[in-house]
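Team,

Forwarding the record for the chain on the shared tracking sheet. I've put the sequence and predicted structure together so nobody has to dig through attachments.
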Amino acid sequence: MASDSGTVAVIWRGDPAADPSETRNHGRLLPVFDALTELGIGVVSVLYRDDVHDAVRDRLLDVDGVLVWVDPIGAGEDRTTLDTVLRDASSRGVWVSTHPDTIEKMGTKAVLHRTRELSWGSDTRLYSSPTELREGFPQLLSLGRPRVLKHDRSNGGLGVWRVTPPPDPQTATVSVQHAAPRDDSVEVVTLDDFMDRCDHYFEGGGKLVDQPFMPRIADGLIRAYLVEATVVGFARQQPAEGHRRDRVLGLPSSKTMFGAGEPDFAVLRRQLEDEWVPGLRRCVDLAEADLPVLWDADFLLGPPTTSGQDTYALCEINVSSVLPFPPSAPPLVARAVRTRLDDRR
């Protein structure tokens, strides 16, 4: 669909032979389509699968920009092939959000280590090999407090583990809980067996991020949505009913949305816009023009201050596929897209 204001391809996973309008994500993304169209930007829906990557590349070379909603892991595929396609399109002058280089800098769990010195950070370690894991992780567990290991490229709780040392430091076993099932089941295994189980996370250059367990996860998670450097809304997620508070890890996907002006999150918004987003860009060497047009940051509640005010600890940043999003986001996304396209003309 040609347009004087430019044309944008919107990509999500799906069977290329299917009608995009019949897929689940079409309905979820429709407000973005409508907002882009209202500003005179043409929209092309593209369903992606690795086996049609050449055809997708050809389609992208006929548009001015690309908006991507594709998780790191999904439908049995990762982002490796798609990211190659997106880099190729970008090198030929097509604007891409979010660009794979930006994802590398801020959209993997490694950002927790790169920004650990910001006030949203914690005692975070990064392991780049099985050897580093075996050298560092047992020492931290020996302090007697649970840790959380996270695969740097994962979503939906996949590759996220809470590891709790035994009360007796002489015991060789640990309790492990996987976040992906979103239940409160735990398994007791030897630490060596668990670390052996993690070896495959390092394949293809993968990494593991190691953080202290935040016990206030039982009070829920707060997601802040941003368009570029501006907060546009919030969501709160709560543990599932019936879960033991001491075993909360994975949270259900249902979210309660709030506007950017929600008073309960005024402090978090101010910290994000005034301190943390500039600090993030500095830590990962990211230009403001390279920020995603839509992204989110997940926070757990940290220890209250002496005055009783909540503190916030970064849990992860999502840039690959931000769904759902607040109703206020699509018009702001569309304006950001038009500005990016105009700047490139």
